[in-house]
Amino acid sequence: MKVKLFGLFLPVILLLSVVISCGSTPETPPDETPTTVTPPPAPPPAPPPVDPNSARPDQTALNNLDAAAQRLEEARKMIEDFYGNQYFPEDWANAESLYERAQRERKTGTAGEVRDSIALYNDAAAAYEAMLEKTMARYAEDLENQIVAARNNALASGAAYLAPDYLLDIDNAAADALALYQAKDYYKARDAGTQVLDMYKILGVGVDAYKLRLEIEERDFYRYDPSNIAAADAIALSALDDYATRNLVALGAKANDLLTRYTRSLNIALQAYATDCGAAASLERQKALDLRANVSAKKEFDSAEEIFPQANVDFREHRYAEAAKLFEDSWLLFRESAQITLNRRQAAEEALRRANQRVAESDELAKNAELIVEGGLE
Predict the structure, then answer these.
(1) What percent of the chain has a predicted confidence (pLDDT) above 70?
(2) What confidence tier does 147 reach under pLDDT thresholds 50, 70, 90?
């Protein structure tokens, strides 16, 4: 029985095996090669981390370095331009050492080197900038002192009453220069202040020249040197145009030229005038001697005699103004002594005339009296 059942199941088992085999293994298409799938390659290992200081510097870093160097140069130049290196030599030496180090150690190979170089330039610039405030204060103080001195000299020359409009104009320019300094516009303030200083100096020279021209006019000295004085007057007129255009170089040269020219013309006039005064004093002295004023007006004559020799000394030594003044004084005293002598002589003559008249009148009375007596005796 069991053998029969096994014989029945065997064909069934074989059939199921074939079916299962056909269902699990697909048929290979004719003339096709089976596809082989290649797995993706493994990713490469991650690179080691890069030190940012060792990297090449980017353009921004290089630009920052140039900006730091420019900041340093500008601060250094400003200190030199305003004499901070002379005012504060120790501070300057310290800043210079930082500057030289920054220049010497400047490197641009890596980002770290650029960063270090920027720090060096900034340190040096900070040292110069620390000097800047006190440098500007010192420079402004020195310039102000020079301006005040020049203004005082102009005032001493008489600018306040001989050239008040020009003085006011320059004072206004000085106020503008101060405003520029207070606004920290230092280079413009320096230029404006220097111009004000020059203008005050020129004003002082110009006023001195103008006073000489006034003296020439007031003392009628034009006649002694007319051509040179006329030439100087023409220069003075052209100088007014230079002042209007602020051509201070030309204006300063002309102011000094005018002072020289008017001084020379005045000296020529004074020499001629002193000669005239000396001749007049000598003539008056001789008149006084002829009148014997040295005896009759001894006090006045002797005073003139004390002055007259000194006048001659001054004239020989080319002190013509002093000589002219002394000649004038001696001339007046000689004239006074002569006049006193004449007055006294006239008074004596008048007294003698009156005395003679009285004597004559007395003689006449005596004669009349005698006649009366004689007539009475008859």
Answers:
(1) 82
(2) very high
| Length reported for the chain | 378
The ranges assigned to domains in the chain are 56-134, 140-265, 272-362
H or E segment and range at residue 172: helix 164-182
* Crossing angle between the packed helical segments 298-316 and 248-290, to the nearest 10 degrees: 140
Query: What does the pLDDT read at residue 300?
Result: 85
SS (H, E, C) 40-101: CCCCCCCCCCCCHHHCCCCHHHHHHHHHHHHHHHHHHHHHHHCCHHHHCHHHHHHHHHHHHH
Amino acid at 153: N
Can you tell me the distance from the alpha carbon of 339 to that of 301, in angstroms, rounded to the nearest whole number? 11
Name which of 77, 57, 82 is nearest 139 in CA terms.
82
Q: How confident is the model at residue 9 (pLDDT cuts 50, 70, 90)?
A: very low
Q: Average of pLDDT values for 227-244?
A: 95
34: left (phi over 0), alpha (psi -120 to 50) or beta: beta
| Distance from C-alpha of 15 to C-alpha of 23, rounded to nearest angstrom | 13
Give the other-Cβ count within 10 Å of 120's Cβ: 21
By 3-state DSSP, what share of the chain in percent is helix, strand and coil, each rounded to 5? 85, 0, 15
DSSP string, 132-151: HHHHHHHHHHHHHHHHHHHH
> Which pLDDT belongs to residue 4?
43
Asked whether residue 375 carries a pLDDT value surpassing 70, the answer given is no
User: 80-96, pLDDT tens digit by residue?
Assistant: 999 999 999 999 999 99
Q: What's the pLDDT tens digit per position in 287-313?
A: 888 888 888 888 888 888 899 999 999
Asked if 88 contacts 135 with a C-beta cutoff of 8 angstroms, the reply is yes
What local confidence, expressed as pLDDT, does residue 22 receive?
Answer: 44
Alpha carbon of residue 41 to chain centroid = 84
The long-range contacts involving 68-76, CB below 8 angstroms and separated by at least 24 positions, are 68/117, 68/118, 68/121, 68/122, 68/125, 69/102, 69/106, 69/121, 71/121, 71/122, 71/125, 72/99, 72/102, 72/121, 72/122, 72/124, 72/125, 72/128, 75/125, 75/128, 75/129, 75/132, 76/128
